[in-house]
Amino acid sequence: MGAGREPDGSSKSDEEWEQFLRESVAGAADSPRETSARARDVANRLRAEPGRGPEGWRTYTPAQPKRRTRWYVLGLLVSSVLLVAALAPGRIVNLFAGEDPDSPPPAAESARPTQAPPTEAAQRPTTDRPFRGSPAAGWASGAAGIAVPKAEAVGWMSAAEVERALARSRDFLVESGLDRAVLRGERPKAAIALINPHQKDVQDLLNTAFRSPSEKDDPLLLFSRFQPSRTRLVGDVVKTRGRLTYQEGERGALQVTADVTFVYPVTPADAGRDDEIVRTIVRRELVLSWDDPDKVITEPGTFSIVSYKYDMTNGGCGASTGYLTPPFGADRRTDESGAAIDPYDRSAPVGQGGTSGDECRAATRS
Q1: 129: pLDDT strictly greater than 90
Q2: Given this model, what pLDDT does residue 302 score?
Q3: Burial class, 93, CB count within 10 angstroms (exposed 0-12 / middle 13-18 / buried 19+)
Q4: For residue 89, what pLDDT band results from cuts at 50, 70 and 90?
Q5: Is residue 225 pLDDT above 60, yes or no?
Q6: CA end-to-end distance (rounded Å), the chain
Q7: Strands 146-147 and 239-248
């Protein structure tokens, strides 16, 4: 084999060429290597993409999973529901209770409204949706519909004592107008326990009213009651709207005024008449006095009643029985013979509508 020549023109010996060929075949550590076609392709591609760092050709980058659009949308919907629940929990309750979510719920009542709520589309109530077609469909349920103001010190009471008195005033409204046993006609023991036992005129009224009710001594002046043998409540919800306010009264007392409307969906107790649903609507105004025990004879945790009055529609007419007697069937036409009134209009004071003396007024809507 002929000798090769170096770049400078010098020649290599046969021994040197033989050693060079052996090392080329075996692969010397420092011998030059020809890059593979794949490596060249990777290098060329990287050079064509500025800004990318080098990536080993044996490395593996897993494919990004496809976006789960359905879960993203579901998450967005759940977040929206939670936001609405935080801002307006009453509306969420109404939504899942099957009521109509056609309009936004009204804010809690902090002052007397200037006008009646808008008229709803005429829709017949059902056992599943007893407030359908009524402004009460968007109202809060039970005690949640009775707004309580922030407590501040008044008269002989500190702010903390005023807060407790307001809470107990609302408790009276709950026990007298929302308690299921009381609504079924049972004696409202818990509510009566909150009334000053030394207030003789009220105690006399209570003792007589449940024994022999009359127009003068009527349990309905303070309590909502239905006769189970005649009337049955539909569902477990009573809708409410109203507020408590307070000021300093006589002899430094805390005087609390409650103005609350209760909406009771009822049906005849007779089997097979569930399709006839009437909403009895009672609006009450109570003035309660939390008296200074150093100036008035009272018991701790009780109030004296300064005044009470109420408006009522679809609750019966005629002689007092001690129960609300919603009109059903043919009785409904007779009961609607008086002047018309909107029982949802809270813009006028209590006493300017509903039942007044022997006059029975018809509800323009229920």
Answers
A1: yes
A2: 98
A3: middle
A4: very low
A5: yes
A6: 118
A7: parallel
Among candidate residues 281, 289, 279, 277, the one with its CA nearest the CA of residue 242: 281
Is the separation of the CB atoms in 195 and 171 below 8 Å?
no
User: Cβ(260)–Cβ(242) under 8 Å?
Assistant: yes
What's the CA gap between 325 and 345, in Å, rounded? 22
Q: Contact, 267 vs 277, CB < 8 A?
A: yes
Average pLDDT of span 40-48: 57
Cα gap 335→338, rounded to integer Å: 8
Residue type, 64: Q
pLDDT at 107: 87
Q: Within 13 Å and on the Cβ side, how many CA atoms surround 157?
A: 29
C-alpha to C-alpha distance for 362 and 366, rounded to whole angstroms: 10
Q: What is the per-residue pLDDT across 137-180, written as a single tens digit (0 to 9) for each?
A: 999 999 999 999 999 999 999 999 999 999 999 999 999 999 99
pLDDT in tens, 183-212: 999 999 999 999 999 999 999 999 999 999
Contact 226, 324 (CB under 8 A): yes
The model's pTM is 0.71
The three state secondary structure string of the chain is CCCCECCCCCECCHHHHHHHHHHHHHCCCCCCCCCCHHHHHHHHHHHCCCCCCCCCCCCCCCCCCCCCHHHHHHHHHHHHHHHHHHHCHHHHHHHHCCCCCCCCCCCCCCCCCCCCCCCCCCCCCCCCCCCCCCHHHHCEEHHHHEECCCCCCECCECHHHHHHHHHHHHHHHHHHHCCHHHHCCCCCHHHHCCECCCCHHHHHHHHHHCCCCCCCCCHHHCCCCECCCCEEECCCCCEEEEEEEEEECHHHCEEEEEEEEEEEEEEECCCCCCCCCEEEEEEEEEEEEECCCCCCCCCCCCEEEEEEEEEEECCCCCCCCCCECCCCCHHHHHHCCCCEECCCCCCCCCCCCCCECCECCEECCC
Residue 248: both structure tokens together: 């300093």
